[in-house]
Amino acid sequence: MAIFKKKEIAKNEFDQVIVGTSLTKEAWKRLKKNRLAVVGGVIVIIYAIIALCADLLPIYPYDEAITVHRNLRPSLTKTAGDLMLEQEMKNMFFQAWRQGRLELSDQEDAQIEAWVKASKTNDVWDLVYARGMEAIEDGSFEWNSSEQSRIDRMLNQIATETQITVNRVSVQYEGQTRNIEAMDYEELRDLYASLLGVETDVLEESLYNEVRSSVGNEVRANDSTLSGDDLEAAIDMEMNALGEAGIHDRASTNVIGYIEQLALRGANSDVQALIDSGSIELPYEGTFDLSNGLHVELEVSLMHQRRYICGTDYLGRDLLSRIIYGSQISIAIGIVGTVTSIFIGILVGALAGYLGGKVDYYLMRFVDIMYGLPYMLLVIICMAIFGRNIINLFFALALVSWLTIARMVRGQIMSLKNQEYVEAARSMGASTMHIIFRHMIPNSLSIIIVYSTIRIPAFIMQESFLSFLGLGVQAPYASWGSLIGDAVSSMALYPYKLIIPSIVMVVFLFSMNFFGDGLRDAFDPQSKNQL
Amino acid sequence: MTKYIIKRLIGMIPTLFIIVTLSFFIVRIAPGGPFDGERALPEAVKRNIEAKYHMDETLLMQYGRYMFDVVRGDLGPSYKYKDYDVNTLIGVSLPNSIVLGSFAMVVALIFGISLGTLAAVKQNTILDYFPMILASFGLSIPLFVFAPLLQQIFCMWLGWFPTTGWFMNNNAPLRTAVLPTIALSFAYYADIARLTRSSMVETLRSDYIRTARAKGMKNSTIVFKHAMKGAMLPVVSYLGPAFAGILTGSIVVEQVFLVPGLGKFFVQSSFNRDYTLIVGVVIVYSAILIIMNFIVDIVYAFLDPRISYK
Amino acid sequence: MSSFKDKEILLEVKDLRTYFKTDNGILKAVDGVSFVVHEGETVGLVGESGCGKSVTNLSIMRLVPSPPGKIVGGEVIYRGTDIMKLSEKELRGIRGNKISMIFQDPMTSLNPYLRISTQMIETIRLHQDMTKAQARERAITMLKLVGIPSAETRIDCYPHQFSGGMRQRVMIAMALSCNADLLIADEPTTALDVTIQAQILELIKKISAELKTAVILITHDLGVVAGMCDKVCVMYAGRIVESALTDELYSNPAHPYTRGLIASVPKMDGNREERLFSIEGQPPNVIDLPPCCPFHPRCDRTCEVCRHAYPPVKQIGEDHYVACWLNCSEEERQEAMNGGDK
């Protein structure tokens, strides 16, 4: 019954404990001692969990834009309604100050003038709001009637306006219940045509034109100097670059939006009736079967009761939600890209290292030349020309980032090649492929994994760099880079939009770097001299 | 040595050739030519334009013509900025980029090497921790976060520097160069400092440094005369990739601080599909990079007498 | 052989202790080493790898890398001054000038990035008031003395342009270029070919005689010691277990370890059928060593007391000292056993 048998401790003649030293065990011991690395690892895991569970978290949809909630500052305590009212009052106080109704000290007047000149709008607003509220308290200031009615209207709006969010629309299609998000372009087109009762061809044409006009808007936004033929030419080029698949993608997104709106309109009267009858409590979730065969799941909530703890962006989308979904994309690209580049790198490196000779020479020459290329520039060109979507981004990055891994694997394999156990395997008639993949790669795997961990931050930085330039992830999706890129133009007015995603990204990169460094120091203590 | 230099010079040609070819074909096989959409034009006019830009010839002939022009130093006309050729556009903006890049490199080298060495010599003291903590910030904060943050803090909040502008244009003061330089050099300071520290620590542990100690030499002499040369080798070989990084990084810095450099043209021409301009900018960037790599190799060979020049 | 007794004492090491801090505990690399070097004398320091002979000599020059190493006790008295108490600056005046060292691996001990001339001239000018030209002249003389052909031109070469033996010659020339009193040679021939080894040893012997330099020769090869040294110290696990004049040691080894070492030198005239003698087992790990004779598991004459206490050092002849219980009286052993029980 020796279930709890003590592990036998080996001792030598001097009563000294003989410790078996497994390399991995030693490495883990070293890693655990490195506190920074452990903290880094924990933070990375927390990020990964949050990003993975984004769909389950109680956050607003990342692409739901509520126009009246544009550019709200982050607040833990105040609801969107409070913030809207506050902003409105700030504006009105400022107007009142301009009109001379709100009186401040001369010093403050001069201060405000100076701020206005330096376009420090936030400072001005904060000051007039604070003074204005004090003035209302002690009765030295009163709203005039039009202002008061504006405030009343707003209060009413805040108290009653509801937001109906479509969670899911499904339909009986060819005998099955299908979620419309999971349908492909043709199915969606046919469904929508039948819902509207129009010819498929007509619908197709108008869908195409919609995509074209939205592309046109993007082109104009990028280069406002274009007009006439030049503009048409530029739009044609963009359309060509999108290709049929790209156009269908965008059209599908549009159609899904239309069908959701249709469903919303269909259910609206029922929902309104429910709300008016007062029989439901908000927020309310419910499902409705519509006469046109759509089956819609809705969520009804008081729109202005929302809390945006990270604020909102220029379209009124929740920044917290965008950051979390952005993390999902950034981390996924970092990991998937690294895995792809490792795969290519291992393949090339192992072949070059094991086969040697001419194969090695040409492969390594190729790698050398690729090293000499300004590859970020090539990635930018590829993104600009072959279309800016996540798949292209990810391919362009993976294609240029396997070089270092290939070199490393080659070096490892070269040194392993001459070891006895490989000789032994060969002498027993094992094939080249067998030796490479069964004996050599497993033996260099730990180092490869460690170095790939170090590569992930670099990959994320590259992706974010492209997204920052507007060449990476496209709306409505977000990544850390695109969030920061969007914020730069308005950072004087809304610094939180820049600072919050920056902190989120930097904390992750920090943790990842510390964790990676810790792993490397633990598993490969000799190689401290490398970057 | 001369032979080695000549050999390396000749070795630069194929790389440059591959870059030109690669970018030419990537750009040409891309969907949508620059004049495809000008359907409002009568057929004859369109053909005239195409003939003007030699678009009516076969791809191979276009390639040959382009290569010939490039060898002569002519990068062709811009498709989008009509009335300008690529040479002019690059000629106007390149000096700004080069000055910015060199400032950043020099700052990164000075601070990276001196603080890295200090950290190695004063291991596990405040003089070690401080530069290394700074370096790990530099490693983890991407340039496109750092540059706007600098602007936010020093321009908006503290008001120490003008938000934008560039000292080489419009008589702007020299301090307009300070923030762009700091932003661009920070990441490379981080890498150089870390590299210098670790390689200096390793060198200081080596046998020949022990010999120098046994000879009774002063610590400072040991560090600067005996250890520096060997410790600088990894730093020197890092400079090649660093230059590449500074080139791409300058695109961001130029955008954030509105420096009228080459980066702006690069991003814009990518959006506009201004093919000749894209290829032109890539060629110029690559040429700078290749020349820098060449210089790095020569410096390396000078530092390490064991390199054979054969 | 006792002629050195009359000479002045050049260096006296007294109870030197150097410990290293490691992850697993404190490593007592040198744990109470004492010996004396007279002027012009050649002392051999013999032992297996890891027994602390190199650390002893690095400690004499205070060159032990710190951290992790630390000299925790003892005195090293050079001509009446304790090196352990000198300031960094005073110490530099002794290093390379009065006491100089040559190291095991000539491949890595010369700075590969500097010319031989630079390295030699800087050493000479560091300690002697000479112009550059004079120093260069001196360096060339020294190189000629150690047998570097065409020294005038070779002096401007880089270390990688020399062979291993030549580099060791350069090291010797550099070490002796300031007329040091004491040369510490740390396994100077281990990294060299056998044929070169003899040349280098011969060179050290010749030059030390010529310049009247005392030598501490660290080696694991008893054969080398026999030909070179006036006195031998045998080290085991951080302590000196036996020291004696060379002839005395060979003819009359008292410690079982010394006997084993002597027996394991292959003899050319021996019976070829006979197996080569070797000492069974491994030297102990010197972290947290319990009080005992560290050699007892490998000793063929071990007894109870060996497992309980370290033997005291006994003088058993003129200049012959040994630390082994075999040379102790029964009472002493009994006392140690009782002491150990307390």
Description:
The complex is a heterotrimer of chains A (531), B (310) and C (342). By secondary structure, chain A is mainly alpha-helical. Chain A has helices at 23-33, 35-52, 80-99, 106-117, 121-137, 145-160, 185-196, 200-222, 228-277, 319-355, 357-372, 375-386, 390-400, 403-417, 420-427, 432-469, 480-488, 495-523, and strands at 162-173, 176-179, 284-289, 294-302. In chain A, a hairpin with a 4-residue loop joins β3 (284-289) and β4. In chain A, α2 crosses α10 (319-355) and α7 (185-196) packs across α9 (228-277). Chain B has eleven helices and no strands. Chain B has helices at residues 2-29, 43-52, 59-72, 86-121, 126-140, 143-157, 178-204, 207-214, 219-257, 262-272, 275-303. Chain B is flat. Chain C is of the alpha/beta class and 342 residues long. Helices cover 33% and strands 24% of the residues of chain C. Chain C has an eight-stranded mixed beta sheet with strand order 6-7-8-3-9-10-12-11, with helices on both faces. In chain C, strands 2-1-4-5 form a four-stranded antiparallel beta sheet. At the A-B interface, α9, α12, α16, α17 and α18 of A face α1, α5, α6, α7 and α9 of B.
Identify the notable features of this structure and list them briefly.
heterotrimer, B: 310 residues, mainly alpha, 11 helices, 75% helix, C: 342 residues, alpha/beta, 8-stranded mixed sheet, 4-stranded antiparallel sheet, 12 helices, 12 strands, 33% helix
Overview in brief:
With 531 residues, chain A is mainly α. Chain A has helices spanning 23-33, 35-52, 80-99, 106-117, 121-137, 145-160, 185-196, 200-222, 228-277, 319-355, 357-372, 375-386, 390-400, 403-417, 420-427, 432-469, 480-488, 495-523; strands spanning 162-173, 176-179, 284-289, 294-302. At the A-C interface, loops of A face loops of C.
How are the secondary structure elements laid out?
The complex is a heterotrimer of chains A (531), B (310) and C (342).
Chain A: H1 23-33, H2 35-52, H3 80-99, H4 106-117, H5 121-137, H6 145-160, E1 162-173, E2 176-179, H7 185-196, H8 200-222, H9 228-277, E3 284-289, E4 294-302, H10 319-355, H11 357-372, H12 375-386, H13 390-400, H14 403-417, H15 420-427, H16 432-469, H17 480-488, H18 495-523
Antiparallel strand pairs in A: 1-2, 1-4, 3-4
Helix pairs in contact in A: 1-18, 2-10, 2-18, 3-5, 3-6, 7-9, 8-9, 10-11, 10-13, 10-14, 10-16, 12-13, 14-16, 15-16, 16-17, 16-18, 17-18
Chain B: H1 2-29, H2 43-52, H3 59-72, H4 86-121, H5 126-140, H6 143-157, H7 178-204, H8 207-214, H9 219-257, H10 262-272, H11 275-303
Helix pairs in contact in B: 1-11, 4-5, 4-7, 4-9, 5-7, 6-7, 6-9, 7-9, 8-9, 9-10, 9-11, 10-11
Chain C: E1 9-22, E2 25-38, E3 42-46, H1 53-60, E4 69-78, E5 81-82, H2 88-94, E6 99-102, H3 106-109, H4 116-127, H5 132-145, H6 151-154, H7 164-176, E7 182-186, H8 194-211, E8 214-219, H9 222-228, E9 231-236, E10 239-245, H10 246-251, H11 256-263, E11 313-317, E12 320-323, H12 330-341
Parallel strand pairs in C: 3-8, 3-9, 6-7, 7-8
Antiparallel strand pairs in C: 1-2, 1-4, 4-5, 9-10, 10-12, 11-12
Helix pairs in contact in C: 4-5, 5-7, 7-8
